[in-house]
Design goal:
The structure holds 2 protein chains of 2 kinds.
Chain A (H helix, E strand, L loop, with lengths): L3 E2 L5 E2 L17 H4 L17 H4 L4 H10 L1 H17 L15 H18 L9 H31 L6 H5 L3 E5 L6 H10 L3 E5 L2 E6 L6 H17 L7 E9 L3 E3 L7 E12 L5 H10 L4 E13 L11 E10 L4 E3 L2 E22 L9 E5 L6 E3 L5 E8 L2 E4 L2 E4 L8 E7 L7 E6 L2 E4 L6 E21 L1 H21 L3 E8 L2 E8 L3 H11 L9 E2 H5 L1
Antiparallel strand pairs in A: 1-2, 3-23, 3-24, 4-5, 5-22, 6-21, 7-8, 8-9, 9-10, 11-12, 12-13, 12-21, 14-15, 15-18, 16-17, 18-19, 19-20, 22-23
Chain B lengths: L1 H38 L12 E4 L5 E3 L7 E7 L4 H19 L2 E7 L4 H11 L5 E3 L4 H5 L7 E5 L5 E6 L4 H11 L3
Parallel strand pairs in B: 3-4, 4-5
Antiparallel strand pairs in B: 1-2, 1-5, 3-6, 6-7
The chains are: A alpha+beta, B alpha/beta.
């Protein structure tokens, strides 16, 4: 628990493996980095005092040390990778058909495996609490491990002295002894400076160093990761991020979801253009495709804003914000929102025109009437004196237990129960009319209703987006890349020279690319009578 | 010298505690927000957002805030939704009794055509107010996902319970009991 004073006079913090100043191994701490007398020194973090390895008392310290461990970090990553991989085996919940109960869907589609998958929560893996906690633990581990390593390493590199301990020199990977009185130190220094080394001197001992900043690369990289994670965390706050969806029918005005009822959209027109089949340029390609190929999806829309006074649900007072078109990748932008063209449905019925005719003769015509499918009237009085009442309306009909029922509110497959009152009659004739169905309820009807015409309209699907997190995520990504480049393309290199009675010792260390270090040493000793050092690591092998 | 070390250690402990507290705070925030997002509903215990909607078949409007002092059951439904239809008779059955006791049932309808709803109301003999939300504003306001979805609002205007899916008679009665004024 005490600070350790080295024989060179430097006072080291508790837990130091090598003296910060001279590099002498501190005897009682050699186990920390697994050094032993027979082997080269472990130069990781330059033998600096990493707190996590020594200081472990209170609960907070224990938690801190847990996250500080690289081993723990790697395991967290491995577990997350495996979980993520499992999450891709079956489709996630958001990709299964809508309106299907996931509990049933996974069991029916994938059997027992699917059921287990569902019950373990893999169907919603990427937003499940335990997955998020795994990611968060990786985040914490990155922060803690970086703090625990950056500061000691920074300190030790700042405090290092050119004068090294003999053991330190001997146990470097690149080491050489020269026994020659005529060593030209000035030329050696000059050669080093030519290769952009910074040369420090202390009592005739030399330290040449370059690219120390490359050692900070991993930490810069980690800062980028943390910014990135914080950016994605902000996506949970609606003030920063909204991702919603809205369906609008042509002619309809609707509230834009995700805007707190503030904005409305009117769909003026949805346009789907396809490539012209008579155009020679496209003919062959279209033939290969075997059908029309869309060229443009477009929604012409008007965006409105609610004037502030009204309550939701009240007939809103709307002010036009803008009239614009949304095309693929060209969203309508207004204030902080953007509407992206994302989906469509063509040809939903909007109007149907019927005529009254004799049951047996379709060419007779006793009058026509048009039903607006989004708002049918109850009664239609024809000029010819016939009266039609709608007894029931099914926007999208299906038969269930012999009874017609509607499965949605959208007129995709409309059907009616009509009551027809011929002039002067008080007893109606009832008939059921839908696409491909015209049923005479009593079997004794004299008249029949027939569809003569219909109008359709399109539905557009727009993604509603607001995203202030993207710049933060981009900055995080950029910092990440800077860190990677910093650590990858530059190598921290140090060369030490120690004067001896009849010659010199030199040693070298780098965090990577030993070959280049030896080449630089080779160039530096040219003409200096210093002998080329050897790579003791390769000799050990 | 010793004091300096102690001081440093204390500082370190404070620093570590603060860092861990901040990070754990962020994690808790993230997990809770994602769980809330999943349910896509307004949180229980919050004040029910105010709205005004037209009562079906009349020109009368109902404003939620006018009903303060009464318990309010807010039911989102549509005629094409089978489980919604199934729970309607239960609501009708309990309505007279609880209306006496100061509970109002508001059934917000999401159909788009009047005639469909009118026929349904006739067929089922519905007497509680059915409200029209044609532009889907109130549904959006309450972040309603699948229907039927029912909110129970206390006389103070707070959301007591949110139920997604069909209610049974006894469950419905239990919830109504919770929001009945004293």
């Amino acid at each position: 628990m005490k600070r350790i004073t080295c024989e060179c006079g430097h006072e080291n913090p508790e837990g130091a493996v090598l003296c910060e100043a001279c590099g002498k191994p501190i005897e009682e701490n050699q186990h920390i980095d697994g050094n032993d007398d027979q082997k080269l020194l472990n130069m990781r973090y330059d033998g600096s005092a990493r707190r996590s390895k020594t200081y472990n008392r209170t609960f907070v310290d224990k938690v801190w040390n847990f996250f500080s461990s690289v081993k723990v970090g790697v395991w967290l990553i491995v577990i997350t990778v495996i979980a993520s991989a499992v999450g891709t085996i079956l489709p996630q919940e958001m990709y299964i058909p809508p309106n299907e109960d996931p509990a049933v869907h996974y069991r029916d589609q994938y059997g027992l495996f699917g059921q287990i998958y569902y019950q373990l929560g893999f169907h919603n893996l990427f937003s499940s609490w335990w997955y998020m906690i795994l990611i968060a633990m990786i985040g914490i581990s990155i922060v803690v491990a970086s703090i625990d390593r950056f500061f000691p390493l920074y300190k030790v590199l700042k405090k290092q002295k050119p004068k090294r301990h003999e053991t330190f020199m001997k146990k470097q990977r690149v080491f050489g002894k020269t026994e020659d009185e005529s060593v030209d130190l000035e030329l050696f220094k000059k050669n080093l400076r030519k290769q952009r080394f910074k040369v420090y001197e202390q009592d005739g001992h030399l330290l040449a160093e370059k690219n120390r900043f490359a050692r900070w690369g991993p930490y810069v990289n980690h800062i980028g990761l943390i910014v990135f994670l914080l950016g994605s965390l902000l996506r949970f706050i609606p003030a920063f991020y909204i991702d919603d969806f809205v369906w609008v029918r042509e002619g309809e005005t609707k509230v834009i979801s995700g805007t707190d009822g503030e904005y409305f959209i009117e769909n003026k027109d949805f346009i789907l253009e396809t490539y012209d089949e008579s155009d020679e340029r496209f003919q062959q390609a279209l033939l290969n495709q075997g059908g029309p190929v869309p060229k443009n999806f477009q929604t012409d829309a008007v965006i409105y804003k609610r004037s502030e006074s009204s309550l939701p649900g009240q007939e809103p007072e709307l002010e036009i914000v803008k009239e614009a078109s949304a095309k693929m990748n060209k969203p309508i932008k207004f204030d902080e929102y953007a509407l992206y063209q994302a989906s469509y449905q063509l040809n939903e019925f909007s109007e149907m025109t019927f005529k009254v005719h004799d049951k047996d003769d379709e060419d007779t015509n006793y009058g026509e009437f048009t039903v607006d499918l989004s708002e049918p009237e109850t009664v239609y009085e024809l000029e010819s004196g016939y009266r039609i009442e709608i007894q029931n309306y099914f926007p999208e009909y299906e038969f269930s237990n012999g009874e017609p029922v509607s499965v949605s509110r959208f007129p995709k497959n409309p059907a009616f129960v009509f009551q027809l009152y011929p002039p002067g009659e008080s007893e109606p004739e009832t008939s059921f009319l839908g696409i491909g169905a015209n049923i005479d309820a009593s079997g004794e009807n004299e008249y029949k209703l027939g569809l003569v015409n219909f109008d359709v309209r399109d539905v557009t699907g727009l993604t509603v987006k607001k995203d202030y997190t993207l710049p933060i995520i981009a900055i995080g990504g950029a910092i990440f890349m800077i860190g990677v480049i910093q650590g990858m393309y530059w190598n921290h290199r140090r060369i030490w020279l120690q004067p001896k009675e009849n010659g010199v010792w030199i040693a070298g260390h780098t965090n990577k690319n030993w070959f280049a270090l030896r080449r630089e040493i080779g160039k530096a000793i040219e003409g200096t009578n210093i002998q080329e050092p050897v790579d003791q690591y390769e000799m050990e092998k | 010298m010793k004091e300096k070390t102690l001081n440093k250690k204390r500082k370190r402990l404070i620093f570590r505690t603060a860092m861990l507290a901040v990070m754990i705070g962020l994690v808790i925030f993230a997990v809770f927000s994602s769980l809330n997002n999943d349910d896509a509903v307004i949180a229980e215990g919050e004040k029910a957002p105010d709205f005004v909607l037209k009562k079906f078949g009349t020109d009368e409007s109902i404003t939620l805030s006018d009903l303060e002092g009464k318990g309010v059951m807010l039911n989102f439904w549509a005629t094409y939704c089978e489980p919604c239809k199934d729970e309607m008779p239960y609501m009708e059955q309990l309505y007279p009794e609880y209306k006496e006791r100061g509970v109002e049932i508001l059934a917000v309808n999401l159909d788009s055509t009047n005639i469909v709803v009118e026929k349904f109301m006739q067929q089922y003999g519905i007497t509680f107010p059915v409200l029209q939300d044609k532009r889907g504003e109130v549904m959006d306001l309450y972040k309603i996902g699948p229907i039927p979805s029912t909110l129970f609002i206390s006389p103070e205007g707070e959301i007591v319970e949110q139920v997604t899916g069909e209610l049974t008679l006894s469950k419905l009665e239990g919830y109504l009991e919770q929001i009945a004024p004293e």
